[in-house]
Structure formats: structure tokens, C-alpha cells
Design a protein that fits this description.
The chain is of the alpha/beta class. The protein has 12 helices and 13 strands. About 35% of the residues lie in helices and about 20% in strands. It has a 7-stranded parallel beta sheet, sandwiched between helices. A 4-stranded mixed beta sheet has the order 10-9-11-12.
Length: about 375
Amino acid sequence: MPDDRARVAIAGVGNCAAALVQAVAHYAVAATDGAITPWIGPMRADAIQFVAAFDVDERKIGTPLAKAIHAPPNCCRVGTRTASWETLIAATGAFDVPVHMGPVLDGIAPHMADYPAHRSPRPASVAPVDVAQVLKESGAEVLVNYMPVGAERAARFYAAAALDAGCGFVNAMPCFIASEGDWAARFAAKCLPIIGDDVKSQFGATHLHRALVAAMVDRGIRLTRTYQLNTGGNTDFLNMLDRTRLASKKRSKTDAVKAAMHPVIAPENVHIGPSDYVPWLDDNKVAFLRLEAEGCAGAPMDVEIRLSVQDSPNSAGVVMDAVRYVAMALRAGIGGTLHGPSAWLMKSPPMQLADGVALAICRVAASGNLNALTMVGP
């Protein structure tokens, strides 16, 4: 296996994992147009080798990753603009690792059993594997946590497995691990890099919302009220119909936008979070943003935007960057939180940085100066 490929394991073979696998296959046979960072050190956008995968759905367990990513209830698009999925698989000859049974824990919300099988997960009736042992045997360098929103126990289980196996960790979900002092300290103590928490989309509602708020601040506009409403039809939105699982997601998205506000407006004037599940939208996410503000001499103004994106592919490029930063840090003996990449790629990093500052740090690291990975400023 070439040394310039990050060896990656996936916890949760849902739509986001499907988009990531297809993106890696796409760039293996295509130019890097659309990639956030085409090269990170010697690693091109497609320099990722999937070596292990874990899920709990009976339709995915024991199945090769290339097939499992298209099993129900996944609804991520199949194929890319360049080629069909069959063509991509034939060209790369990869992605044949089997999907292992992981522990269910709180990974499936109880209300999902009330929905048709093609819309919701169905747990397999087999015993879970020893995840840490599989990670060690696979040679995984990075474990990506794709557990669903609200699966706090499952997310922490996989973080602990990464620590036991000596893997770096990318926490793509809104369970606070990288931004929680004890967990961050555990990764630092073992000299294992971690990026988190809660992946931003490449160009999604939160990034757009932050940009608009920052632009208002820069121009002296006073924000008074704002909301962000999100709808979609994938399993993520179905999962979030259980409002008891939403606390961390709402906090993550709200904190990401509030970090761009100066001054921060009163909590009752900010509403940000998932709003509803619309089955026929499938993996399409539709977001509605409104910002009310005052300009010179208190003159009122408001902005309304509707954003429609393919939800899962919108996160794939971000995770492609994250796993490469973690793999490079691991090989360089750099452990603990990677602050610049966390702030650039995640909604709830341990330290919120202005997007321009975080991007500048990432560019320095991508050019080969890996000491920048732990920096928090220019």
C-alpha cells in the first residue's frame, strides 16, 4: 500500500460515508476540480484507502463497502458527473473491505421502527466485533465517526476504540469530544490527533450563515434577529424527528453562527436547527435563512435566502481534508486537537477561529509545515 494514502476506517456506513467513498473513487479517475484542498502534503484528494467499516444494519453487515453504501436506507446519489459507480469501481479496484457489526448502543432512535424499511435502519441480529481489535488488524490510521445525531454513547464508544487502537479520530457528528477537555487530553496524552466536532458542509447553511453575519459585522450592520430552518428526506432528518436527540445539534449549529456575531444577540432572537423531515426530498437538503438588522442611523434591513444542496456530498470534501490532516499529523508524531483544521472544517471546534484565520493555518499545513496544525493564529 503506498505510503502517501491515508488508511481510513468508517463508523457508520450511511449517506455521508457513501458520499465520501464515491468522492474518493471520483478523484481517483478525475481532476481535482471541486476539492477543497487538492493536495495536503504528498496526499492528493483521492489518497485515501478504506481499510475497515462498521455499521449495525442487517443489509450492510458482511457486505463489501462498495455495495453496502448503496443499501437502504441510504439515498445518496449513485455515480458522479464523471462516470457511473460501476465504472469508478472497475477503474479503482478498491472498496472491497467488509462491513463489520458494531454495537448498537443508542445508534438507532426508537421511533425509526415505525417507518418503512427502505427509510429506516434495521439492526442485524449478530454479535458486534471487537472494534479496537479490527482497527489494529486493519492498520487504520484514522477513524471517522459518522454516528447519527444523538448517539452520544455510540460516539464515545468509537472514540475510546480509536484511543485503544492507536488511531487518529475525525468526529463528524455533534457529540462534543474534541471540544471536551477530558477527551481532548486523552488523545493528546497518547499523541493521537483529533479533529472535531460536527462536520461543516463544503458550502452549506451554517457556512453561508456565518459568512453573512461576518459581512454585516465588517460593514457596521447590527444584527437583531436571525433564523436558519433546514429540511431534508434522508435518514439524518428522520432520526432528528426525535427532538430529545437534538440538543447537541442545535447547540453546535447555533454556536457556529454566534461565533461570527459581534456583539452576540440575545438567545431568544436566534433560532437555528433542523426543522422537519420531508421524505420525498431524499438526500436533498433545503435551508431557509433570514437575517434582520439595522444599518446607519438604525435603518432597518433584512435578508432572506433559500439554499438547496445534495446534503451528503456536501460533507464529503470536508472529511477528505480532515482525514488527510489527521493522517499527516499522526505520521509526524503530532497529537491532540488540530485547531486550525477543526475550526475550518467543523461547526463546534474546541476554539472558534475566524474562517480566514483557520483557512490560512490550513494552507500553511497543507504546504508541508505540519507544525501549523496545532496553531490558533497566524
